[in-house]
Write a structure and sequence with these properties.
alpha+beta, 109 residues
């Protein structure tokens, strides 16, 4: 695979897994990657941790940075929140998350 590319596995709401290649040098986040592959992730707030339409569940043991207060506050108010809920827009695409598995949360946020 090209340098600066990682693979991100996204399980959609029908249970279908999509293996996506994502660049680590374009300052992207997971919400933007999903949208660029036309997966049904709305990203209504544009990545500001203010809508939860990018919520997903972390299904791999990938180590992620600690959640910001803004992300935790938003998840407090969101629907369908589980212990492994994350906001996709708050996960930067970096080499460290290569192979991450995320499942999209149901629509309704
Ligand atoms: S896009 Fe709105 S919280 Fe992530």
């Amino acid at each position: 695979m090209a340098e600066n590319m990682i693979t991100v596995h996204i399980i959609d709401r029908e249970g279908v897994q999509h293996d996506l290649e994502a660049p680590t040098d374009m300052n992207m986040n997971i919400m933007e990657v999903c949208r660029s592959y036309e997966l049904p992730v709305e990203g209504r707030c544009g990545g500001m941790a203010m809508c939860a339409t990018c919520q997903c569940y972390l299904e791999s043991d990938t180590e992620l940075a600690e959640q910001s207060d803004g992300e935790l506050d938003m998840l407090d108010e969101a629907f369908f929140v589980e212990d492994n809920s994350r906001l996709g827009c708050q996960i930067p695409v970096t080499a460290e998350i290569d192979g991450i598995v995320l499942r999209l949360a149901p629509e309704g946020n």
